[in-house]
Amino acid sequence: MSNLGSGGKRVLMIVGDFVEDYEAMVPLQILLCAGHQVATICPGKTAGDSVATAIHDFEGHQTYSEKPGHRFAINTDFTTVDPADYDALVIPGGRAPEYLRLDARVLEIVRHFGETKKPIAAICHGPQILASAGLLQDRQCSCYPAVGPEVTVAGGTYVAPAETMDSAHVDGNLVTAPAWPAHPAWMRAFLELL
What we know:
Strand order of the largest sheet: 3-1-6-7-11-10
CATH class: Alpha Beta
CATH superfamily: Class I glutamine amidotransferase (GATase) domain
Shape: globular
Order of helices and strands: EEHEEEEHHEHEHEEEH
CATH architecture: 3-Layer(aba) Sandwich
Largest sheet: 6 strands, mixed
């Protein structure tokens, strides 16, 4: 288990290379500040490794721009992690979810949280993993607008974000949001579930 944090709930965060920098780093810091323990995992990585991140911004183009971000530390071994040891799950966005959803073990871990009704926070492209795990049937889900069709195809109801991209949506144990401008609303709602 992670040596980060000293109490509260045990939260698992799944990341991969080119995860959105703010959507991994900021929730990690918020959760640690609130006294929770956060284990960060990535397929093919062990404690002490890191992933590259990307910073996505909204600068008036037809889609977001992308810039290099920071290195994000992995503090828990992916192959030995047991999701039953954790109280909640965080799935950041960025480009990582599009390939993480192809990993059978990732989907198995995510399904555990869905089946046990533990809190799940997913943002931006993170709901791509929820869709692939089969967790969006008859659920309402916010996400980056380009992921909306995947929510619908997975049997869910896409909840369009406010124009400012700063809204979050709660459906039972699921807290979703469109992008990092929603961090205050998204993390506030997730902390309430914890």
